[in-house]
Amino acid sequence: MSATADLPVDHPHHRHGWWWKTLLVGFVLWAVTIVVTVATSNTNLVPTIILLGSFLVPFTVVLFVIERVTGTVSTMQLVTAFFVGGILGVLGASLLESNLRQGALVYLGVGLAEEFVKGVLLLVVGWRVRPKTARQGALLGATVGAGFAAFESAGYAFNAAITTRGIDLVSLLQTEVIRAILSPVGHVLWTAILGAVLFGVAHGRPRFRWSWAIPVTYVVVSVLHGLYDSNSTISTLLAFVVTGTPLSAAQNGTVPASIAGIATTLYLVGLAVVSAIGVAVLIGVQVHYRRRARRQDPAPRPHVPGWHDAPPPHALG
């Protein structure tokens, strides 16, 4: 067998930029669907808006992965991981979260439940993936996280659209825009971190390996997930504290207009901070396992001709 048989193989459709082309065309189709829906008052188009708005950015993530993944991962495996992983993910998370009670730690419980489900799905999907590297794990984890985000966003969009007064298109669009913008630094990011560690630990081996780094990473991403989800509550409480406004000023759970702007600013800052921490963790994990791989498998440096390789000067006759 050739020595090159086990090397990563690029798929023929790599580096074609389909992900940003799909994002651009999909956004135009989504906008046109909204215009036609408003112009015709045709509520039959509402499901199209929900599907396009909820799946556009997550599926773009999958195309981004397809253009960069190598080895034994096929396009069909990635698409299957997106759809099957997404459906089983939201179903499993719903079952685990059904017994959670409201309280200070409810968001941490949600993070632990959802990251556990996605982690199990990542193990199943990545069982036969070769080679197992931190980069491969991050890409595959991003795919599973994107599927989860897509189906979860569709549910949130549906709930936002259905009201006692009928279909609230404005609320639907606001929900889809916010979740589309945040999805790459939400489920996609958390599962990419977990996948990078799962695959990074097993680097150079055909099967996954155990390491304490795996449960530690699981706890870290679950905590980040919980902080991300609870940021709205935390920012609101901070707004009350910073302005010295008593909690009794909130009527029927509504934030007073005098501190609404501060609460929104703190909310955006909180999301930015948690997202930045997540990105830094992902980069740190990738760098760590890349350096580790170089130490374990040092490749010979290619010979670069230099001045010492020049032939001796010819004698002048």
Folded structure, characterized:
With 317 residues, the protein is mainly α. Helices cover 68% and strands 1% of the residues. It contains ten helices and two strands. It has a two-stranded antiparallel ribbon. A hairpin with a 2-residue loop joins strand 1 (162-163) and strand 2. Helix 3 packs antiparallel against helix 4 (106-125) and helix 4 (106-125) packs across helix 7 (187-201). The protein is globular, with a radius of gyration of 24 Å. The chain starts with 17 loop residues before the first helix and ends in a 21-residue tail after the last helix. Mean pLDDT is 84; it is low at 1-7.
Output the keywords:
317 residues; mainly alpha; two-stranded antiparallel ribbon; globular; disordered N terminus
Summarize this entry quickly.
The chain has ten helices and two strands; from the N terminus they run H-H-H-H-H-E-E-H-H-H-H-H.
